């Protein structure tokens, strides 16, 4: 029987990418998806998490545990700080998809660019990197790089090419001034094949975020 992991999504685009990663890297794990895209909309409208977001994230965590999940993955960087509160409501691990990426960024450089397309993500993701640096006892400079107009191009206009162009241009500029590039959102994972010309490490959360479950679930 497969082990169960619940994934709490705020973004429909992330589901298929995560399914693929689980199938490739953790075929022995069953992925349970809990999707509420109103969470991200509320975070965007308020430029951060609200008490309502924290309450719903906690309720979904309790639901996931009742469904037999042995661990929970928080897919969305925008609500990562709500996951810290939700962890107190359940007895199973509630892990953040972007924490391993943040830890790796701190190891790789002193100047770290955090690339985000959602206004609700830029600060939580940057604080996560800063917290990982503090935990590691290392001084870093985190440069917040917001991709103006990219989110609207993808989600409102359905123009993926425009979204990609804005993000890639932001990354190219950031690479000139930083040691490592952090893609704060899983929705940028599909850009990796288009970033081979970037001469600095470019980190994405999907692969390392999934891989951490080998340790969490004590898989061989």
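-> sequence recovered:
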């Amino acid at each position: 029987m497969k082990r169960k992991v619940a994934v709490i999504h705020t973004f429909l685009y992330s589901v298929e990418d995560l399914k693929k990663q689980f199938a490739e890297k953790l075929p022995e794990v069953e992925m349970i998806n809990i999707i509420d895209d109103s969470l991200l909309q509320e975070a965007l409208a308020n430029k951060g998490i609200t008490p309502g977001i924290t309450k719903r994230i906690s309720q979904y965590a309790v639901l996931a545990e009742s469904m037999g999940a042995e661990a929970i993955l928080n897919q969305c960087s925008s609500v990562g700080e709500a996951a810290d509160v939700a962890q107190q409501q359940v007895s199973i691990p509630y892990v953040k998809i972007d924490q391993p990426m943040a830890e790796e960024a701190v190891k790789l450089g002193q100047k770290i660019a955090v690339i985000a397309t959602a206004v609700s993500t830029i600060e939580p993701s940057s604080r996560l990197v800063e917290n990982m640096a503090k935990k590691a006892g290392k001084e870093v400079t985190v440069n917040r790089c917001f991709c103006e107009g990219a989110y609207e191009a993808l989600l409102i206009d359905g123009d993926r090419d425009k979204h990609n162009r804005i993000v890639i241009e932001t990354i190219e500029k950031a690479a000139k001034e930083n040691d490592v590039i952090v893609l704060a959102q899983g929705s940028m994972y599909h850009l990796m094949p288009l970033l081979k010309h970037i001469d600095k490490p470019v980190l994405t959360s999907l692969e390392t975020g999934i891989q951490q479950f080998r340790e969490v679930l004590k898989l061989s």
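The chain is about 50% helix and 20% strand.
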